[in-house]
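hiii so my PI (J.) wants the whole complex modelled not just the main chain, which honestly fair. so below is everything: two entries, each one labled with what it is. i double checked the lines twice but i was tired so who knows lol
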Amino acid sequence: MLGERKMREIAERVLSLSAANQTEVIIMSEDSGLTRFANSYIHQNVAERNVGLRVRAVVGKKIGVASSNDLSQEALERVVERAMTIAKLQPENPDFTSLPSPATVAEIEVFDEATASFSPEDRAKAVGLVCQLALNNGLIASGAFTTGAGELAVANSLGIFAYYSTTTADINTVIMSDDSAGYAAATAWKVGEINTEVVGAEAVGKALQTRNPRELPPGCYPVILEEYAVADMLETLAYLGFGALAVQEGRSFMVDSFGKQIMSDAISIWDDGLDPTGLPMPFDFEGVPRQRVDLIKGGVAEAVVYDSYTAGKEGRASTGHGLPAPNTHGPIPGHIFMGPGEVNKEEMLASTERGLWVTRFHYTVPVHPKLAIVTGMTRDGTFLIEKGEVAYPIKNLRFTQSYIEALANVELVGRATRLQQSWFGGVRAPALKLAEFEFTGATEF
Amino acid sequence: MRELTDRALNVAEIKGATYADIRIVRRENQSIVVKNGKVEALSQDEDQGFGVRVILNGAWGFASSSLLSLEEVERVTALAVEIARASALVKTKEVDIGPPIVYSDTYRTPVKIDPFQVPLERKIELLLAADAGMRLAEGVAVAKSNLQFVRERKGFAGSEGSFIEQEIIESGGGLEATAVGEGDVQKRSYPNSFGRHQGTAGYELIEEMDLVGNAQWVGEEAVALLTAPQCPGVVTTLILGATQLALQVHESCGHPIELDRVFGSEASYAGTSFLTTEKLGTFRYGSETVNITADATIPGGLGTFGYDDEGAPAQRVPIVKDGTFVGYLTSRETAAMLGQESNGCMRADGWNRIPLIRMTNINLEPGKWDFEDLIADTDEGIYMEMNKSWSIDDKRLNFQFGTEIAYQIKKGKLGQLYKNATYTGITPEFWAGCDAICNQKHWNVWGTPNCGKGQPQQVAHVGHGTAPARFRNVQVGVMK
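here's the output for the full assembly
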């Protein structure tokens, strides 16, 4: 860890070296470890210490970016010069307005010393508990447990300097027999909030319950989606269409939808980088404070997220969702929440005459991005429900379904929510019961 | 470099490691993206560091750092040993990497034009011209053209005595036109999907692409797709173009033959494989027309190199012979489990990742057909080209792909244009229906620069040699 003072000193050196009209510098550091296991033993066990420096030089309306992970004086000079040189070589970009100006960034505390100093031996012991649980039940454990610390500083020549440090802990596990599998995961910024035995027990339970799966024909079924599957839907929607550039380029499902009811009124989705129940991050990669943005409110399409470039095109302010430059995909929400409901999963089950219970999705990919039609598989815990009870486990199914249409047919929303790691932040989602979900194929297990 | 590698190997030995290796990697990346007449991205990145792998007490440890100094090498090597000691706390067997392999060599990607010597202004000019060509078609909302160049210099040293230095150079680029209208969004790409083809080659690869010469039809076809009817849902004969077939090979063959996946190493992330070891040598993967080879030596392939990241030499390995499954992609450790030697497929995404079994160039060997003759020989079917979406289950059986464009085939001729084309199947059933593959004239090694695997995730650059091929009785038109 470099510390705020050192990062400020590096940032000031970079800015003083630059002769560009405007300059931005991003500095990061990372110190992390990941213990991976398969066949109930630790087969890969890694650690990494890295730093990063990214300089955006603006010359008129021309922009060049250069980066390095060497923080020596020679490297700083080289990176600054490179960014300037390549900026000068290109034509002006008339859409560029300015790098952002300073604004007050909220102070948050998301660094936990115990997590930062969690050792390889600590991780091994925690993983060992999961493996032993599996072995005790005649099953095989696989998964990964990661802990680490990181820092981010963003500064620019208009006066921005923002810094924060954070810790991270995440475990995911798939536990299997020769014909079944179960999944569980947990994430937090404090390793003390993760109980690997509880996570292991959840996955073991599913692995035991999914033995002897039966075939079920594909078709349109009511479904109960656990929080893991709903988190996948939110991540996909965020990537496809909750960012301003996707709207400006005409490829988002939000185009021509603002103010309209596009999902069930039980659905509210928002992005909030300061919410302490997520994985908070107080500013974006341009140093702009993260704003809460209500994306969907009571099923109505409300807003998308902006960075300074997309905001500049519309004469509005950034919402603090900039990603590291250069970013040609546009801003994306990274701290996503779906509002909870009133019922628990047992009540959802009891209310279902005939339908499917899905633990999570696998390999979901957009088939038609503008319509948010996505295909993927079910995985690690899929069941037929009959008369309000789990009838039996089924072999996994493929779906091809518009996520927007699916969320327009919500019957019930879960009361509890679960936090999952996402692209660079987190997703907190409840379980959902949907009136219909289109399954278009099946596999052999 | 020797001073650093020697220090790591010495420290590892002193601390009791029975095996150690160190990789030092320096990577440069240049990326240019032009969108709608503006340079949207222009960046030059450099990255360096080292990673040390050790075996201690029969278990693996790995640690890495971006700081290249003797003191840091000592710290990191000691940490790798500590990590291996921790791994040994949860162990069911001892790591066995088989007999030693020792090489002392250098390798450099052969290039005609060093892409980093080509002036940036020339590259920008090329992309702006291609951009203008795409936007000649009215209805193109977003024209995107891009170039990417990579140079990776790496050194490998192992405790058995290997010392290998390599320089891998890659060039890539392409076009993508997105048309918006009629309440729809459609796109076309060239020369490969998602707007980029890439290979281990110099700037000559970009010149061969003729981006400017191909820009206008890319824009025009994107617009034409807006008003095309949707691909119908039917079980029919399917002819796949070479670039789509590259991704088919990637997902349904390249991944399930990774032996670490077969042994369960990836179960918690991307999954396992239906090609379990009792199938080796006997399983009918596809029809007798189907021959698939893994080849890390083929010039220009994106998965081509001199030595893998365990120090094993690049090799050409049969995978499917006349339809029968005959080979895996292996590492020293997994090969030892089969009583074999590694066939050189361990590749790491940079200094801060351990090597994993990755594809090299997984090639569907060419057949005998001219493309025109193949169409003429097909009474009824659909021709699909250029991947748009992909998905497969976690044992690599049930798959679904979408392509940018499709055409009806009727009485041996291409006819009606279709959009939103999709097809689905089960891997061995699909390949059993392959009855014709086009010949060498239509064969090319396509680059897939975005193959994901591992925790923490790694991205590999791999290649697939393919020519168009025909498949019988395929379900097409999944999307309603």
